[in-house]
Amino acid sequence: MTRHHPDTLTLMEFSAGNLSEPHALCIRLHLDQCPHCRSRVDTLDSLGAVMMESQPQVGVSSDMFDAILSRIDSEPDMTETYISTQAKRMSPLQKLLGDDLNALPWKRQLGDVSVLDISERFPGQNEQVVLQKLAAGGKAPAHTHRGSETTIVLQGAFSDQKGVFNQWDFVVLNQEDEHKPVAVGCEDCITLSVLSAPVKLTGTFTRLLNPFIR
Amino acid sequence: MSTLDQKPARAEGRKDPWSQLLEKVGKNQDRQAYHALFEHFGPQIKYYAMANGMASHAEELVQEVFVSIWRRSCLYDWRKAAASTWIFTIARNQRIDMLRKMKRTSAEMPVETEDLWQIPGDNEDEPVTSLHRLMSERRVRESLSHLPEEQITVIAKVYMESKSHQMVADELNIPLGTVKSRVRLALNKLKVILQDQNV
Lengths: 214, 199
Hints:
A: alpha+beta; Arc Repressor Mutant, subunit A; Jelly Rolls; 2 domains; 3-stranded antiparallel sheet; 11 strands; B: Rna Polymerase Sigma Factor, Chain: A; 10 helices; sigma factor activity (chain B); transcription (chain B); sigma factor (chain B)
């Protein structure tokens, strides 16, 4: 059961289609598991529909409908094709990362923390997209964030002074948030984070390490 | 905002005319119904494309959206969304997909546009959810006509011009906090925020 949700303004930017792809992915993964936020997005989508309806309207060329019909007629089985591709649809996470998150080529950073930078899977984006793994029971060093960091928990759970974050929980951290996450439960905690700027260490570490600490 | 009041209102528990037409397309491949939807939504989608700075691709977007409507109309269920809401999400997804193809990033990326933007949960059959979805569009249409112009302006820029809250603030030359509070006030009225308290 998810406890930490995206805020309504972020859901609105999702509904309007204005988020970057990595951010949209974080929201989409949360929506997959959260009926509450799905219902909020439904309402926001209705807002989009009503906005579209209340704007000025622009006439379309007279021959366009015929062009559409001839396209439909040239692909007679397009409905069936669509349904069969829907049936084969994998979760976006599976498509992006395969079936086993634990089997990814993790890079051990220090003690309990491993990372994997997947920014190159999102060509043409400026943000850094990183998977982070904190070993079960492990601790990450204290750090703050220079820009904002959007995180969704993919596996396990972590806790910091703000609370416990379980699978599919959504959290945004920024400059004011200094935290010291600990992986709770018996599983490694894996998160997906989108970072707009590097993290600043506040403890004794001097190197930039990773997203639990970047 | 007078156009809002002229649109077919959804009677409690009844399908609005557009949803009925869309259902006919899905069930019987009814081309007359499809044409009626085209006449109504085509010009809206064309404006949407132009407002998004895609003037030279506006008709192409209308075409893509309508081919897509035909393709998936058999999956449409009026209990889950009003036709206008369903069509808006297709227009949004096709806009994103078209921009992505123009940037030619789609070929390099394993995840498709729909993977990111299509709302999951098409199999939800809980009556509460259905009722909620039916109510939401009607409620939004009614509440929106009572919102102050300054709130509607901000929302229109977010939805029709795909501007971030920051971009809206820059354009209107007002602080980001003002943009956000206008949006929050509006969403409060539309009961999107109120639901947060039920978590």
